[in-house]
Amino acid sequence: MAGIAVSTTINGDAVEYLCQPDETLLDVLRDRLGLTGAKEGCGTGDCGACSVIVDDRLVCSCLVLGAEAEGRRVETIEGMAHGDTLHPLQQKFLEHAALQCGICTPGFLIAAKDLLAKNPDPTEEEIRFGLAGNLCRCTGYDKIVRAVQDAASVMRG
Amino acid sequence: MNFDPRLTNRSFSAVGTRPIRPDGIDKVTGRARYGADFNMAGQLVGRVLRSPHAHAVIRGIDTSKAEALPGVKAVITAADLPDLTGGDSALYDILDNCMARRKALYDGHAVAAVAAIDARTARQALKLISVDYEVLPHVTDVDEAFRHGAPLIDDAIFTEGLVEKPVKPSNVVKRTQFGHGDVHKGFGEADFIVERSFRTEQTHQGYIEPHACVASVSADGMAELWVCTQGPFVYRQHCAQLLGMEASKLRVTSSEIGGGFGGKTHVWAEPVALALSRKAGRPVKLVMTRDEVFRASGPTSATSIDVRIGARKDGTITAAEATLRYSCGPYAGGWAEVGAMTAFACYRLDNVRTVGFEVLVNRPKTAAYRAPSAPMAAFAVESSIDELAGKVGMDAVDFRIKNAAQEGTRASYGPVYGPIGIGPTLEAVKNHPHMQAPLKKNQGRGMACGFWFNFGGQTCVDLNIGMDGSVSLAVGTVDVGGSRASLSLVAAEELGIDYGQVKAIVADTSSLGYNDMTDGSRGTFSSSMATISAARNAILILRERAAQMWDIPADDVVWEKGHALARGEKYGNLSPLSLKEIAAQSGTTGGPIAGHSELVADGAGVSFATHICDIEVDPETGATRVLRYTVVQDAGKAVHPTYVEGQYQGGAAQGIGWALNEEYIYGKDGRLQNAGFLDYRIPVCSDLPMIDTQILEIPNPNHPYGVRGVGETSIVPPLAAIANAVSNAVGVRMTHIPMSPPRILAALEAGAGKHDA
Amino acid sequence: MRYIRPLTIEDAVGQLVGASGTAAILAGGSDLLVRMKGGFVEPDLIVDIKAIAPLSEIRETAEGFSIGAAVPCAVLGENKVLKKAWPGVVEAAKLIGSKQVQGRCTIVGNLCNASPAADSVPALVAAGARAVVAGPTGKRTIAVENVPTAPGRTSLAKGEIIEAILLDNRAPRSGDAYLRFIPRTEMDIAVVSAGVNLTLDETGVIRTARVALGAAAPTVLLVEEAAEVLVGSKLDEATLERLAKICAGACRPIDDKRGTIEFRRKVAGVLARRVAATAYERAGGK
């Protein structure tokens, strides 16, 4: 199979790569570009650990082909902090201990960022349903929800 | 140097605070490297071929076509993993589970593996392997497997532990019994007796990170294994034994671990990856798919449990007994035994007997899952206790308080308890505002207790003081949920320095002495004990160095708040020396300063919890919603309270999932039907309420700070707490976990309103 | 395997017609990529239709709405006019998968995946939605219920693509609703589901009705007997009882990992009652 040449933007940087037609965006990020922050928990869109934002839409990168990223803007966990300055969600996840093992954390942070971009002042229920596509097996979600509430409050100023 | 692990009365400055974990930044920025995040030059992709049959003789495997496929660098079968187990049957079972030898014993059992230049080639190669199976009758249900005439999984199994050795083989590996007193007499004294049978279905630990490793065996026989594991030293030992290597030639590095809960205490694919690498002469990366994780790793036992408990009118339990049948998968295990030990551990009983039966089934090899075996036994016992309280006419909490074990009680599994937390958790629950909150129609409140032993075990820690006064702490227990923060706190506490001066890491197997795996809630308990010991050893050296710097006898130097102090008026002119100042001079006072500790952490204090929950049942659909949940648990001493709360909440959430929806569903063909997160339903964020926690601290006398393990107990009460809540909401006693909507609806229709249905 | 991204529907159809081996249409990919990952399909050609501009639009026409085949369900939820006119269709579409999946999945994909448990399909059938099919011989419009023919199978011929779903303008006093039963609160496939679409007269009497059930038979069920019971009523308790009974009776479900026959029958009736009440309220009935 011939590789497909893709030009895209990842975390603000122009990126070019070759990928196979059946290769997912997740595989491209992890195996070709070394961006291993997005995780594969299931490969079927059921756990959200591979969440990224493509053109302002939250998606599971395991359910997007690498070829589909042509001309798009992809945001991953690696682009969430600005240099040394953590995004408020990252900071609040640390302060609230909203992670134990941490494998789901990049996906949660990306999903929460998307959630707050669309709804800056969500209720607890909106946060819970908004993050229902991200599985966490360690925390029981309590501290995650609290961290998102706190970050939302900080971001609203 | 002798280490005294006994509890000492002291106040804390670092322990009990809630700083940010040292590995946190990497985890929120995506930099932390987990099992699948590591790569080596020239690495191949490993994939495993798995049996589609629940039970089949492997008559032959033809790998020639796969081997001929361009890009395939190695194909292995059981023939490439010769039996080097030397009669160690437990090790043989591990070997057979890694790669089926004579028979495939469950849907998903590995039968061959390939290493190829990329995933696509590896997948194609698997399709080219031809396995000649002779399909045999199978049995996946624990009760069916228990019966006479069930398909035999291993014809060399004759039940152990019976008075007379059986003449025929069966699927029952072993019978175990615990207890004391005379239950027959005790039931004779009872005014009320509750007798019921319960079932729980098989669940998976459900860690989000699939098993993953990179194995590299060099031509000189040296090997490296990067892997997500709860026990790098145990993995090293098993892999080395199975592959015929010396342990010291295999260096195992535990990656960050994306959840384990007991499921990453056993080797699965790692020996296969090493065997592939050895054959191919290149590094091999092997990552399980989610489907493989469900079909071939984990799960816990499915169970069938009979309980009988009697009480007098005054609420005193006179006798209790239970028979527990636990599935082990196709290999012997001790799961029912543990269930039988924990079943009545919360109570003070004069007459108690539990009997456990280990049952083989054609399902994946049972693995530990957070307080393994205890939640199912607690479900059966705590449901029956609630019902008995009702018959006696006592409040469920008061009934438990009346019969709760206390210091000096002889536990049903043998030992006599020291200071324990069951009574205090019950008192705390009795006084908790949650118990007084009003309930609406179709809502119910339930509570239940849980017990877990907690483990200690072999532990080793290195504490190195740098010349700048910063401290690196190398531990050998894997950090599964914040223990690097807790252990840094302990080191800071003992040395009297700031938390920020300590950096804890998890060492690889070549850098530190042997450590048992991180199980049994032992990580913080054992490694904190070793950290304290290592810090005290370092302090001895720090005092000597200060003495040298001052040119006074070391006995005249004491250590307080991170400083060496010269004791006595004659040294009034000597200002205290900080750790930093002493460290700065270490090059000229005798070299690097370090403290080491190698110990067996004995005396892990037992742990108790009591949970309260409110649920609402939709009587038309059987759907159950958890409205409110409270965990009260004894931590001994909470080193980092936020992560202790996290353990309480996480265990409760897993228990809630188990209680309501999680289960392995097998078809008549013996194949697992729900090997994915879509139909193996772990709780999602919108399924749960906030989970309130209350930490009690009844110090463990066998730890310098009073620490007890906290990780596991929280999964023990939820099954029963929710079952009791459902019973209180709709008046039907649920005896089958999970209480999925179809089961609840069927129970409602069958038993409408009757408690004794 | 080839991946192509045609710019016109004609080109897409031509590529599909000319394809040797198996070809797959890619819109959101939330079913296709899962099937590829599981090794259930290995298409020789993947036709990504998202670059065909009209397919990514929701158009308001004189007759109603035309929803392009590549419009993600999240976009349906953001379209206020559509949501106001067809709240049941939108709420059904919004139940497919997670937020992540919502950003990708489409109602046409949901329809063409031909799962008996597809969430949007009962709502579309209740709504009387039609599918515009483009193919080598031109275009045709068919009722949505005529697309799936069996689990995993559709009536589409080689080279045919559904380019849009058509929904009519609403008569006054109309309402639709959709409900499904899942064991969790999110991230599940419907165990059983029901969609109801009603139009009332000035006095609140139901004049027209459509009732559809999902996961109750190999394909979506349009239960005409249930609609007949509703018509002429004001959705009184007796009518609701009959509706529930008819819907439970109309089911031809199976026992599987998600539910039992008995459970699906009972709950189909319960959902039909509940969803009819919501539709009635949305139509302005009291």
Characterization of this structure:
The complex is a heterotrimer of chains A (157), B (757) and C (286). Chain A has helices spanning 25-32, 88-95, 105-118, 124-130, 142-156; strands spanning 4-10, 13-19, 51-54, 57-60, 73-75. Chain A has 157 residues and is an alpha+beta fold. Chain A has a 5-stranded mixed sheet, sandwiched between helices. Chain A is globular and about 50 Å long. The mean pLDDT of chain A is 97. In chain B, helix 7 packs across helix 8 (270-280), helix 10 packs parallel to helix 11 and helix 12 packs antiparallel against helix 13. Chain B starts with 23 loop residues before the first helix and ends in a 6-residue tail after the last helix. In chain C, strand 12 and strand 13 (206-214) form a beta hairpin. Chain C is globular, with a radius of gyration of 19 Å. The mean pLDDT of chain C is 97. The chains are: A alpha+beta (157), B alpha+beta (757), C alpha+beta (286). The interface between A and B is large, with 58 and 55 residues.
